[in-house]
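User: What would this chain look like folded?
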Amino acid sequence: MKNFWWLFAHTLKGITKSKKQLILYIGAPLIGVFLSFMTNANGGAETLNIGILNQDGGEVAQDTVTFLKGLDHVKISEETAASATSKIASGKMEALITFEKGFSQSVKDGKPAHIGMTSLKGAQVTGYVSSYLYNYMNSAASIGKSSGGDAKAFQAMYADFKHSPIQTESAVLQDTSNHKEMTYSVIGYLIIIMLYSAGNLTELMIKERENRTYYRLLSTPITSKQYVLANAAVNIIIMAVQILFAVLFMGAAFHIHPSFPLWQLFVLMMLFALSAIGIAFIAVGFSNSSASTSALLNLIVVPTCSLAGCFFPSNIMPKTVQTIAEFLPQRWVLDTVDQLQHGRTLQSLMLNIIILGAFAAALLLIAAYRFSVKRQTQTFM
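Assistant: Here's the prediction, encoded as structure tokens.
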């Protein structure tokens, strides 16, 4: 055990003595969070520029315009046909609402018509305004139906409606979907960073073999198993720090908060860390030099992370690709995060946890077998 702790301290010292390398290990997750924020951040509640072309001029049409002007996050401007066309085409106006001649009378008749909405940006932009507009218009039309065509009865009920003490208020709710997308993206970047960090840390074993440090260490009572375990322990510590920094930076700097407890995210990522170490050890086990280790790591990390959905959601990929992704530990991490953000509990996702554990065990066993074969052939350990 004493030899193990000496090796642990020796490996950790080798990493921390290089300030540039230490900054890279700690700073890379923070860069991943920043990239995710820049990719997914939006401007929050924006003001919509809506034009009104009032060709009717009746009382109901004018009251509807007044109602729209009272909505939050909406700027209403009354336009002419020429100015409306120009502003819509140039993008200065998100939508144009047209009250054609006969609109007020159609509402009084209880059959609202002669109204149109023009937009180049679709329902995603106009949905907020149209929902309030049609609700107001249908309420006025209901009065028209109730009056049965009696103009005086309509006028009396409509006057009560306009001066009703019941007011419609709007409120802006927090868009949690954007937080979910950012959290998913941050985890995707963090997975890639963890895989490369594990590869770089494990690559130190080959570098120490190349500069003969490894053989000098084995001339002491230190064993090859202790050497490998010490490297794995340092890997775990470094990745735990990376996960912790990334999670804290998400909340403190960019206010990105997962919709589930942070300790669950930490446990999930630490479980994946074992798989990352297994993948790194396999890359080292099949390499004879630090250059070949780096090349092999690139061949493993980039394609598998792309298939798993670290760069973009996997649900946009063909079904065949999604099926292949089921055989990757990265995919199960992202799937677990996604389900936790949609209200599932960690206890209900034990199958995912077991599968991640199985991936870690399988990868570490493959690495151990490869190391034992190399030891037998006297090429490594």
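The first strand starts at residue 48 and ends at 54. If you want, I can go into more detail on any region.
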